[in-house]
Design a protein that fits this description.
Blueprint: E1 2-10, H1 12-25, E2 32-39, E3 42-45, E4 62-64, E5 71-74, E6 78-86, H2 87-90, H3 94-111, E7 125-127, E8 130-140, E9 143-151, H4 185-202
Parallel strand pairs: 1-2, 3-4
Antiparallel strand pairs: 2-6, 3-5, 6-9, 7-8, 8-9
Helix pairs in contact: 3-4
Length: 203
């Protein structure tokens, strides 16, 4: 069973610490959870992040996180789903978990007639070469936390402050600029969590 927990708007640091606490205190019988979140504007830098990927000074706070990957931006209008999954119990590795997350996003976008793809060596999901979704995970004792971010209807200007996910000149896009129909944040989060649950349970 996978529980979906809607956390609403959350400060990044406090949400991160909650994920760590959940992961450290869970046991072999604890159900997996997907946390649905929006964040206040924040830049986060992964464990392998390099300072040069922040291109200019900004008042947006920068948090050095324990997830994988480089620097990215989170803000209102971007869907965050944190994947608190016991992959050891599922019998899958990190590559499979990354693939599940990417495929779930690709399937969700296809629901809106948005055709997207993976890019070899650059985790995430892309539309015509522009990044629409990022992902970064941390594994502790066979359990993942952190997860994915999907740009729905947000201010994407702050991405110009950085080399997104460490790639110079990488453009960023969002569903609002690509979909023909009206977008509803709550509907999209329900659809994406269902895609995730479906892929994880059938793995």
């Amino acid at each position: 069973m996978i529980r979906v927990v809607n956390k609403g708007r959350q400060d990044y640091r406090s949400c991160w610490q909650s994920m760590v606490s959940f992961t450290e205190t869970r046991d072999e019988n604890t159900p997996d959870e997907l946390w649905v979140v929006e964040h206040n504007p924040v830049l986060t830098q992964g464990l392998s992040g390099k300072a040069e990927h922040l291109l200019s000074k900004t008042s947006i706070p920068l948090v050095h996180s324990d997830r994988g990957g480089q620097i990215t931006y989170h803000g209102p209008g971007q869907l965050i789903i944190y994947c608190l999954i016991d992959i050891k119990r599922l019998g899958i590795g990190i590559k499979k978990m990354v693939s599940i997350i990417e495929q779930s996003i690709i399937d969700l976008l296809l629901d809106y007639n948005i055709h997207s793809e993976r890019k070899k060596g650059a985790p995430g999901v892309y539309v015509n070469g522009d990044k629409i979704a990022a992902l970064g995970l941390k594994i502790k004792q066979g359990k993942t936390y952190h997860g994915l971010s999907l740009n729905i209807d947000m201010d994407i200007e702050p991405f110009k402050l950085i080399n997104p996910c460490g790639y110079a000149n990488l453009k960023v896009t969002q569903m609002q600029d690509l979909a023909d129909n009206t977008l509803f944040f709550d509907t999209i989060q329900q659809q994406l969590t269902q895609h995730l649950i479906s892929h994880v349970t059938r793995r």
